[in-house]
Amino acid sequence: MFKKITSALFIIGFFSLILARLISTDFLGGKVSQDEQRKLAAMPSIVDKDGINREFTSQFESWICDNLGGRNDAVVLDERVLYKYFHSTPSRSNYKLGPGEVYNYATASIIKSYQHLDLKSEDSLKTIAKAYQYVYDYVKPQGTQMYYFQCWDKQSIYPEYFPDTIIQHGDISKTDQIVDTLTKRTDICVVSPKQALIDYKSEYPTYSKWGDPTHWTQRGAYIGYLELINAINANNNNKYKVLGEEDYDITVEDDGRVLYSTVKKVDMLEHFNIKEPKAKLSDEEPKWLSTWAKNSRRIYYNDEVDNDDTLLIMGDSYFDGFLYDDLAESFHKVVQVWGTYSNNIKPVIDEYKPDIIIIENAERADRTSNMVKGAKKLKKALKDDSISFEDNVDDSDEKENIYN
Q1: What is the CA radius of gyration of the chain?
Q2: Does 342 score more than 90 pLDDT?
Q3: What DSSP line would sit under 182-207, residue for residue?
Q4: Is 90 exposed, middle or buried (0-12, 13-18, 19+ CB in 10 A)?
Q5: Which of 115, 216, 134 is nearest to 174 (CA)?
Q6: Selected residue with higher pLDDT from 287 and 99
Q7: In this predicted structure, which of 15-24, 110-119, 171-180, 286-295 has the lowest mean pLDDT?
Q8: Could you tell me if 313 and 358 are in contact, meaning their C-beta atoms sit under 8 angstroms apart?
Q9: Cα(190)–Cα(145) distance, rounded to whole angstroms?
Q10: Dihedral sign (CA 331, 337, 339, 343)
């Protein structure tokens, strides 16, 4: 008798649980899960534009898996357990915890680069140097100065934050090779704030512990800005305005992110806001002059500076949101385009006729292969048979998502 009662209670409880989950199911679906940062599957239709929906079964399975009642609580509980006991999570696989539970952005290519397992060959480095020098030789007679700015990812400035189970091989990275090659083998002015960012980290967090793990802090960006604008001024008799700390309202705010669905750590970081900005963001958009025209960005004008100079920046998110507005305070016109425009650089240069060009690359987005492509197109446009560029430059890192 007791066995029958317990069996009946088990069956009632089981079906009650199923019923409760069905009642709380989102039957429309298609909402965005903030915990997983993705859109959940929507309820499929039995009939589509071609008649019977042949994908209905698989789509229905995706819908029920994504929207069954109580699923979000189960996902959060699962990730809490994985975070606490395994320092891992299924929905944030590119984020790794280092010593002190510091957040790191660590894709497969970033890990490979950190381990120094993606070094470039000597032939590849020679081709890269020839390409950059070729573009330099094209713009110099036009009175244009050319700068290369290297941004560094967090693991290169704070290796002590990176998971200590990931072992480095040797002391030289691929990015070190690129910076060294362009410095020694070209006439381009190379600005690499790596050492400055390392030196200042004893005073300021130049990259955050628990904030955005994919970029520098605003203090780190300001250090990079000073390295760049001072290098430009060194070649131009201190012609351009340099923003000092007194030109900013500097506040301290919590930039700690919610990671692993539920884990939130406080990270108090500086925010730099220009007190009296003179540059104005134009409604004008850079012209679509390359195969990456969809990443056309923005143009600033500043009528209160004592120069009529145009600055052209080919960069990415390390400048976007950090440095473009600062640099716009020093030049009459600043044109910002995405870094991959370098694969067809001549039309951009010819269109904007810049006085200064900055080619900025982030460590995790090696665009040297794009400059080789751009140099080849420039060579073809000039009908120049005096130089050749070998097809030996690896472009695997160009696929890295720098928007992260």
Answers
A1: 26
A2: no
A3: HHHHSSSEEE--HHHHHHHTTTS-SS
A4: exposed
A5: 115
A6: 99
A7: 286-295
A8: yes
A9: 12
A10: negative
